Amino acid sequence: MRGMLKVSLVWGICMCLDSCTIPTTPVNPVTPRSQSEEFLFAAANGTVLSLQIDTTTGALSNTQSVAGPESPSGIGVNTDGVFIYIVNINGNVGGFTIGQSGDLTTVDGSPFTVGSDTTPAGLAIDPQGTYLYVTDFGIVKTVGAGTETAGGVSGFKINASTGSLSSVDNSPFPANVFETLVIVDPSGRFLYSVNASTGANLTGFSINPTSGDLSQIQGSPWEVPTPSRDAPAALAIDGTGKFLYVSSGILGLTGYSISQTDGSLTPITNSPFGAGTTISSIVVAPTGSFLYGMNPSKGTISEFMINDSNGTLTEVQGSPFPAGTATGTIVIDRSGQYLFAADHQAAVFRVFSIDKSTGFLTASGTSPLAIAGTDPLFLATY
Length: 382
What we know:
The protein folds into 2 domains: 1-21 and 68-223, Methylamine Dehydrogenase, Chain H, CATH 2.130.10.10; 231-322, Thrombin, subunit H, CATH 2.40.10. Helices cover 3% and strands 45% of the residues. The protein contains 1 helix and 33 strands. A hairpin with a 3-residue loop joins strand 5 and strand 6 (92-98).
């Protein structure tokens, strides 16, 4: 049964292979990264890539790679751009130190075990770079004469000097089975996870800033409308921390207002938005004005304008934009000038420039970019 769960999870996340062992070299102390440098990081099956972003053209260069998890399902970079982490559905998290030129070195002690009988799915790092959280897709195991299915969120403390991970004292924290997506709000006070099943819902937690412990928010969980045989595949919060968006399959994007007091969620009026398009990845521009969603079945990226007072989404005229066969995640660089899409099927990166006034996407002259022997799945920028 566990094998069946992995297979079903993998297609929403990645191909499931065996885990790997990576030689380690401790790095201590670390040096905070220059704010003038920007990098794109990609997790592929068995490989982690680092590419430098030309902030004038969006071109990607100086490609570097190291061996990584064989079955990645999420990626995250800490606040200072010093460490990158990749969750592996085979039960662990790989950690890497990012050098000044973007070179990657395995963190001492990596990979870090999430727990026995776990199937890690999603990863999120708090804005302070103090804690890392991983969702557990859950497994079915024999308990006495019957079976038991468990899922939840595991918490880790990030060592600011070495990047090593140590489990938060009371981790893991119970949630729903089939937990996949996870995100922390910009203030670092609240965490939300969503389970990938029909009849899906969002579980909200408050984060203890001292211990990293999670406590469920009153009123949690909240229902996410999903049609039969569909499940949430993407999750995002705007830069102000006022609105949360989750994909609802063919129904479009469901939006919620986030209480700035206790983190509770309230559905946004007229939500879901963009019905008829199944979105697999969401990213909000740094300006907070635009939201982009990847439509893998149509080979397009949709753009929505965010109403900053009530969170309503309105698809802009001219959207969606052609994106080839891109089926992986989409991310935006720190300056908000470029959007990058992982095209797993064609094994290339697609690069788009962003018009800061309209949010329109224009394919870069350097796109698509192929990296021999890689098939990018999950992206992150710094």
